[in-house]
Each structure stands twice: as structure tokens, then as C-alpha cells.
Here is the input.
Amino acid sequence: MDWSKTLSKQVMDMPRSGIREFFDLATGSKDIISLGVGEPDFVTPWNIREAAIRSLERGHTTYTSNYGLESLRRAISTYVADFFHVEYDPLCEILPTVGVSEAIDLALRCLLNPGDEVLYHEPCYVSYAPTVMMAYGVPRAVETSIDDLFALNPAKLEAAITPRTKVLMLNFPTNPTGSIAPRKTLEEIAAICVKYDLFVLTDEIYSELRYDEEEHTSIAALPGMKERTLLLHGFSKAFAMTGLRLGYACGPKELIEQMMKVHSYTMICPTITSQEAGVEALENGVPAMLEMRESYHRRRDYIVGRFNDMGMDCHLPGGAFYTFPSIKRFGISSKEFALRLLMEHKVAAVPGTAFGACGEGYLRCCYATAQNLLEQACDKMARFCDSLR
Amino acid sequence: MTQDALLKLLEADARLSDQQIADRLGVDVATVAAKRAALEKAGRIVGYQAIVNDDGEGVSAFIEVRCTPERGGGFDRLASRIARFKEVRSLYLISGGYDLLVMVEAPTLLEVARFVSENLASMQNVISTATHFRLKTYKHNGLIFAEEPEAERLTFIP
Here is the structure.
């Protein structure tokens, strides 16, 4: 078979994730301490697992409505109103999805016509540009830098807008930099979105995991923004439920209705087991979530201290569970640094370039790993840094 | 640093050094050392022991003891006498159908039986005993024994 004619050209042309090659290198190798993950090191809290088990025990193994369980949408509505201070109608403004990833895909497919441009800030999560491309849009990265602590600079945003720009994607706290957007910055971004009539997709998956003093603000909560914003959130990070694949979108009912249509033809609904576990997470999972957050907070302070001690320049990230230290002073590329760290010292971290070209000179290190392993990883990294001097 | 945070870390792993605890709680090492010493002095931290899975060795038994409290002394005097036996690993005063719960360890079943008949049952004020032998430990001091291996995480995840 001539696969070059058989396979979709658009998909063939799409680059593989920069993480993939490292994944292959690490496969089969033992004793690697991984700072390369993007998920909590906690198992889902027991009461949430128990709710999933109970759901199966009661024989809840059917499809649900394409809109998901009403009990879940009501729980989401209450939680979002309480946490983000934005009210969404559980009957028509909320759509449970298979993770935030599906919600992003649905939203882009429902918003974009071929050639429409989507702005997003880089370094960023690896799926944004490919998902835009799969929806026949044109991804346009706006670079962020350490000067703004990797928050989106409103002036750079405005400079990137063209007549074809339709959507702005935001992700604060950010994977991979852990950066946050101060309220004042968000207000400036919101004003630009209104001025240029942009629609905003805000991926708030790390929003509970903030360690600075400021209360988390979503752009959806700013005056005039709810009508032009789709708030995307989920259970994976804060409630340690990555494998249960549950997220949700909250936004204008016109968009939610179209997303539900695509969702009904592709995914139908998230598993009922996950949906029932999700209700338990929102109603009774917050104390366990706060305990996990406290643990990440301590580990962040530890690892940032160690990184700076060993000569990497590492800012104190405000959220998520990533650090993004600079390795520029060692005079080698991110990729070489990460490769040698993996091969010579058995510590896995992701080169910043996996998250966009402007990630060169940085490394993403996830600290959602047991403290004793973090300590060992830091010891090994310190030896590696010494050897590079 | 709260006392509770320090105790929680030590209860999970008593071998943590003061430096490791200081790193985890974000305080300096002298503060940890001082706090730990104070807790030891006050008797809140009684000791540091390894938790050994001894399911394969020796015999242990939980013995329910009914006894007559003494005027003035209650159960305390009898309990402190029982506590002195080297076979006794733990001893609690219990509410309900009996009074003292004695956890005993010995190399053989015969030795446990002898301890009960010769030392325990014959004590003054002991009315009766009921001995339950341990068959298997599932959880001890908050630690689950013979836990299933943890689910493996991928090394790289975006």
C-alpha cells in the first residue's frame, strides 16, 4: 500500500511531540527518576475511587446524555461559581468532556473556519498548535519570556493580532512554566480581546494549584468577558484523576450547543463511572485536594531552592507543578542537557523546546514526585551541573 | 512550622534527618532540632522504632483480660505489672466487654500459652482471659503490609 497516498497529508505533516523521542529513549531503562511527568504523584483520593467503584457496583454502565449527568453539571456549576465567581447554567452552559483535551478540540472545531488564526502563548502545552491545525485553523504563537515571568505580555499580544485572528488561547497557571497571570495583566488582555472582538479559550486545568498570595482569577470572571470566553477545566490535576479522563467546558450556550453536537457524533459522553466519581470529587474532594496542594507547595520551594543553589537560574513559579529553570549558562542546548541528564545521570526532564522554540535554554522539571526521589534527582543534577563547569 | 507537621513527617518516616525535615517544611535546621528535642523531652515522641513484618516468625496473640479494679488504684497498678513482662508488646485499657487488651509475642505457641496460664491468669484481680492468636497482619501502625505494587507511571508525559 502506498501510505503516502493513503494517509492524510495534513496529519502526516504534523510534527511529533518533542517529548516522544525522549519517551522512546527512556523506555525499558530502569532506575530513572522522572521529573518528566505531567501528572500528580498522588493516587486519586479514596472517597473518589470509592464513588467510582460504587457506581460500577450499582450497575451504572450505560451511556449518559450527551450533555453528561445533570448531577455532574449541577456540581460543576456550584463549584465553578464558588471557585471562579462565574455563574453557568447547568442545563445549557456546561458540557462534561473526556478531559480538557477533548473540550479544546471541540471548541476549536466549532469556532474556526479554514484560515482563521488562533493566538496562544508559548512555551505551552504540546497539543495547542496541532489541535488548531486539525480544525483547519492557523496557529500563531506569541512568545513569552522570563522578563514577564512567562506571563503573556499584552503589548506582544496586540502586536500579533491580524484581521484573521479569531481566538486567543490562555493557560494560567501554565504548563510548562508554572507561570501565572496577575489580575492586572488579565484585565489588559481582556480589554484587547474586547477591542479586537476575540473569543477566548482559557484552559484553567491548574487553577487550584497556585502558591502565591493572589486569589486565582479567570479571565471569564472579568467584566464583559463571560460572553466571549469558554472556560475549560477538569479533574486531572487538582483531584489527581488524570486516568479517569474527565473535564468540562463552561461558556455561552450557543457554543456549548454546537460543541455538544460534535461531541455526540464523536465521543458521546465521558464514562459514567468517571462522571459519578467527578460528582464526589467536587462535593467532597476539596479537603484532600488542599492537602495535595500543600504538599506541592513545599516541594516547589525545595526544588527551586536546590536548582538555584546548583547554578541554574530558576524563577519561583506561581502555580501548577512545574519548574522551568534556565540552563543557558552551561552553554549547551536544552535537548543536549536533557539527553545527557537522562543517559549519564538517569534523571528525566523535558527540554523546554518541546513546548515551543522559545523554550530553548530551559528545562521543564515536574516536582510531583516523592520528596526522597526529588532529593536524589537534585543531588544527581547538582553533580551534572558541576561537571559542565 | 507546626508541631503537627513535624510529627506527621516523623510518623511516616522516623529516619528523616533534621535537615530533610527542614527542607520539607521550609524552616531552618536548628528550629527542627529544637522542636524535636522538646517533643522528646515532653514525652510526646516516646521512641523511634523500625516496623518489622514478623508474620513469618514467632507467635503473637491478643488477650482479653477481665479484672477487678482496685479501690483507689483502678486498673493502673495491675496494668503496670502486666506491662513489665517482656512478652507483652502492647497493653491498653479498653471499654466494653473486657478491661485490658494485652498484645503478646513469643517464639512459640506453647510459650504464649504458658505466659497466659502461669503469669497472667494467676495474677490477683484477674477474673478471666481469652486468647486470640494472630494469623496475618494486613495493616500495622498505619502501614499496609503486602501492598500491591504501585501502578507504574510513564517517564515522560506532556
